[in-house]
Amino acid sequence: MGLAIGLDAAEKSVKSMTERAPIKHQRRAPKYFDFQPIPLRVTQVSEPHRIGTFRTTPAVETVLYDFGAVCVTYQIPLSGPFSGLLSLSEALYDNENLLADSRRLVEELLAGIKTAVLRPQISGFYEDYIIFQVREFDAPDSRRRLLAENPSLVAQVLRADSDLRSEQEVQDALACQISYGAEDLSLVDWVSSLVFDKAADDTRAVIEYGQVQLLELRHLDNQLDTALDRCYESLPHQTQRRWFPLSSGKDLREIGQLQVESALLFEGINNAIKLLGDQYLARVYEQIGKRYHLASWDESIRRKLRTLESIYTKIEDSQSTTRLEFLEWIIIILIALEFMIPFLPGRAR
Description:
Layout: E1 4-5, H1 7-13, E2 18-19, E3 40-45, E4 50-51, E5 54-55, E6 59-64, E7 70-73, H2 84-92, H3 96-113, E8 117-118, E9 130-134, H4 142-149, H5 151-159, H6 167-173, E10 177-178, E11 185-188, E12 192-196, H7 201-240, H8 249-270, H9 279-292, H10 294-340
Parallel strand pairs: 9-12
Antiparallel strand pairs: 1-8, 2-3, 3-6, 4-5, 6-7, 10-11, 11-12
């Protein structure tokens, strides 16, 4: 939505439909475990969308993060056999209607809070993700029997792929399992997550944040790629500007500004949530990080920031050297003129 969002100012703009609610802990957790700052939750209304035999609810929750990211959440009431989730999962994968509607909702919201957004612009990057929350089964041991007797169906739901048959793929899809008690279980995968729990607001909040973090890292990585391409293109021109030391100042300022903005965004993404003290949610976030390869994205961005710093240093050093040479030549010319002036016509005594 932009480089940054002033959440307090945005809250004042759409106060009637906003909420600043911290994570609703279903388990014991210290007070300092939370988002910093707390995201702004906005309730918007949309026409229900039919997805196969299911239908979305009219209320749509949009979450604004201070580092410029937006998460739009649709809810679909679930009922019926577990096998029915497979067709729903496939229908939700890259669903064009929901993607178009979510963009429309974000555009409407941006129009209302534009003054609170720094550099307002809706990016073309997005991540669509599904969280299936199963609150209860007909029989108490249904979850255990489902995972033991039909793991391929669970994997197909997680991957939104009815053709998934490989034993290795099934094992990989079910690899990230986290539970707190005897009755709850969360399975985290690339396309979707399955949460077997009656109350899982905190688990869903962490999974949603993992998706937002992945999206922002992808967006930042793409920005740095574009910036590095521009830098590589401008480097040959530095030699052509050798005798015009001030002409490269604009490039240097742009690179420096990009460095600062990228570093601030990178730190904002990684420091938005504090996971110290809540071991269960920390494990959920750890599994998300492994599944989404967040550490690899972090390292890629750090490497590109270092490359950008190196280019900035080289251009700055080149400019400093050129300016010194330019000043030396001016001094040489002035000294030469001082010796020549007495011998010029009309100056002789």
